[in-house]
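ugh ok fine here u go
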Amino acid sequence: MKSRGIAGLGISCAFFLVACLSLLAYLKIPSFLQLAVSRSGLSPGSFAADLFSAIPFDIRQNVYMFNITNSEDFFNGAKPRFKQLGPYIFRIGLRKQMTWSEGDLLTFRENRKFWFDADLSHGHLNDTVYTVDPIYAMAQEVIDELPEFLERLFRPLLKSRKVLFKHSVDELLYNGYSDSLAELAHLIKPNLPVIGGKIGYLRAFNDTDDGDITVFAGTNPFTKDKRNLITQWNHKKTIPYYGDGCNGIWGANAELFPSFLSSSPPAQIGVFLPLLCRPWSLHFNETRQENGIELARFATGLDIFSPSNSSQIEQCAQPAGWPRGVFDVRACQHSFPALISLPHFLHSDEKILDAVDGLTPNVTEHDFHLDIFPLLGIPVRPAIRAQINVRIWRHLDTSQSNNPPIVYPVLWQEIVLSESAISYLSTMIWYIILLPETTLRVILMLLTILSVSLAVSYAYTSFSKVSDEETESILASAEDSAASS
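structure:
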């Protein structure tokens, strides 16, 4: 009888142990998945590396142009009034040439190509835009710095022009336009983006790359938490445009980040895009749902394109002392007097926005954010947004007191995935990762409940039998005693 009780207790303990192990596995599923995914770094020939080398999704660039509607009043001192045109939509092709080296490093050179999609666009490439003449704007900046004989040569050329002109969207963006003054300026400043005798705001960025970018491949335990974090640009560990203290390179290229748990997202992530001159921070904002999957949104703060409260950084990265929300990119854009900001001057100092009419910033349409699936580190809904502005004066003589400089918005762009691509990507994540995880959770929970039920049931049955047998034995002994007496 005692042996039966011990056996029953043993079987019950076995079921209970299975229940505990099932429950532990249930609770540890995120950790197991995190470990498995984090070990799938960008190794040669891997599925992750193949996806990274040629991103197979529908990536688009939406460009919006600002057309001034009161040019005559503007030249007479009025605030410029703008009408937004677009979007002019371009499909983007990205392809990387990748090489691996010691130290678990991956170096890639990513080529970008843009194709106009007339069917999706709200406008045509032959639309005319009244905007800033980039050559005139640059001449305003440099004319006083030229030797006297060159200054005498250039001033008469500029007097026949104005800072604003009309050109088609095609000419202003990737195709460019011919300009004799641009060719002459190119002789003086060979690094100006004059290509084939033409210049355009985006002409230098089509079918080009940003040079060699070196990142951690994340294929070993020491670098798995650094996957795709940039360690060198063009084989240098610092940005060449700035001095010590503000020339560091950090962050990722916004295409892939180290994985993390959704329950403990990092407070911020770094993004380094050479077109934006230096790394910038995006801050964890909220958790969002996209087609059944949970995404962590990282968005801009008031520190984007802004003074950093570090005098050392300001002296070498933002020497002009611009107010919050605009960043001087002359150092990395061939001395062109451009400033970047968020679209419609979102998060910028109020005096920047008050100096123009027609811009209406809002977070939904104009913020720079990345919605990342934590386990893979992939941005499922990216919105990489930036606005190109030019510092101009209404008239050629920049020394006039009634001719203050103006931050003039030219265009803004966003790099996004199409809605169909977002739906496809989020659905694939659900079926490949989350559905198996959910199924496994259900199986383990049912196994836990079943094991506990069997353990309790078997223990109850075993001890009930033992108790009944002991009762019968006691009664039998009592009867024997009574009979013998």
